[in-house]
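To assess whether ligand presence alters the predicted conformation, the chain was also submitted together with D-ribose. Input:
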Amino acid sequence: MTVAIGCDHGGFPLKRHIVATLENLGHEILDVGCYSEESVDYPHYATAVCQAILDGNAHRGILICGTGIGMSIAANRYPSIRAALCHEAFTAKMSREHNDANVLCLGARVLGVGIALDIVTTWLAAHFAGGRHLRRIELIG
Ligand code: RB5
């Protein structure tokens, strides 16, 4: 699948590891920046990733900032975007199965690289369960 990925300066060191993992898994990557640890404003990158999904240019998105909180707040402002801030693989899996999360948010200053890559691979492999969960998502709008 095509995965749009974006980060701010706090997320940049982790993004490089995630991009390498996505490449190894055979995914297409749409990297919207940023591209260094120079200070930037995370909402711009949340917008770029969400817009890529809404325009049909990416199936899923990954957003990384220092805590993942700013990115998740920003991404969830967009209709049809369901952004899940995850700190371990179980909630990442459930965010796909029960919430059909189309954006994964990560905190680079919270997670070690190994945990972050476990979250990413688990999240990408998990499938939406549908059924009663679809009804609940539709209630969100
Ligand atoms: C940047 O210092 C930091 O505020 C940002 O990466 C993120 O953690 C915001 O939620």
